[in-house]
Amino acid sequence: MAAGYLEILRARHAARLLAGTLVGRLPNATAAIAIVLFVRAEGGTYSLAGALAAVYGVANAVGQPLLGRLVDLYGQPRVQLPAAVVSALGMTVFALAGLEPIALAYLAVIVAGLFTPPLEGGLRALWSSVLRKEEQVHTAYAMDAVAQEVMFTVGPLLVTLCVSLWSASAALIVLNVIGVLGALWVVVSPPSRAWRSAPREAHWLGALRSPGILALLGAFLFVGIALGSITVAALSYADENGGDAVYGWLMAGVGLGALVGGTAYGARRWNGVPEGRLQVLVALLAVCYVPLMLMPGPVAMTALMALAGVFLAPAIACSFVLVDRHALRGTVTEAFSWIVTTFMVGQSLGAAAAGPVVEWGGTVWGFVVPGAAGAVSLLVLLATGRLLAVPSGGAVVAVSSENDPNRAVEPRFSSVDRA
């Protein structure tokens, strides 16, 4: 699979798009951690930290599919870059104004979340225009999931490094400036400028008309809840076991585990349908959350956090293939954005729930939440298995010819998963 990754990265524009998207998504990927650390630095409570992180996530959840639909309608450059700038300005206001007045803090976080550009969905829509072949695109999905975990491993360490060198407010500003530069690098690339979505049927529900997409949204809502609750529970653990440095390592552990798991998942060729495999991956994900309740010392706890992340990237990569199978014609960016949105809503709900749970029952109860949420996600997949087994009609990935930016080409990929 390493050779397959290198083949993809050697494709024209592929490395640039992947790197630019990862850098552009850094503010969004680290927002929950950065907000929590900033609120604590300002003297806020766990509940307030969780609430602000939740508000950011909900605003992000609202904005992602709306911006994704605008991308499908008007192209990437007209939407992605302006959104990135507005989002960065919102987070900058939050960092400079602090928690007083509290209404301004909430408003700034809402703006930052609402205008977060849908770079993740945009990249997955672009893979077909860069790689052309189904087998390569599915491999790119796996590589994409693995590369994300590098960011989720480095991101928490970068946040805590910025906090230790400067301050929590500086961390928020620096990360968002970096994010704007990443978005700029993507949208000025030829594939991004040339990409056009396939024609779509006008309908206010858009991508949500696909039953398979709805099933995936239900499952990944609870995967997000699990990950969001870990963010707050780990902070409570770190406050009792070494502070911010320990917190950074704990959250990096989750990303490192996902990186290892995603790499292993991509090391082989998968045959057959992905629905059953996703059920197994989510089941293993839920099981690996349970040992967190043991709460050993920081080194062992970091190892357990890594274990908790092992099956995250494989589950995400597998879900990408299912989104590809079930996205309706002309809704590919929106469909991927809905997955991102639902995951963010779940993270917000998990963070918001874990704060009061920790304050009520202690840290150990905070770590009960992810295991329970993972179990519910599995139940959703089992209950909707028949819907996911039947690809939605008209599922396509629209691409544009680089030689003719105005001409849309629509390959119809087969339903065999090779990622």
Explain the overall architecture.
The protein is 76% helix and 1% strand. The protein is mainly alpha-helical and 419 residues long. The chain has a two-stranded antiparallel sheet. The longest helix is centred in the middle third of the chain and has 32 residues, at 134-165. The chain is globular, with a radius of gyration of 20 Å.
Percent strand: under 5%
Structural class: mainly alpha
The CATH superfamily turns out to be MFS general substrate transporter like domains
Shape annotation: globular
Radius of gyration over C-alpha positions, nearest whole angstrom: 20 Å
**Which consecutive residue ranges, at least 5 long each, have pLDDT under 50?**
393-419
> What is the level-2 CATH architecture name?
Up-down Bundle
Distance between the termini: 10 Å
Q: Determine the mean pLDDT.
A: 81
Stated plainly, the CATH topology is called: Growth Hormone, Chain: A
Q: Strands of the biggest beta sheet: in what spatial order?
A: 1-2
Helical segment count: 19
Compute the number of strand runs. 2
The count of domains is 1
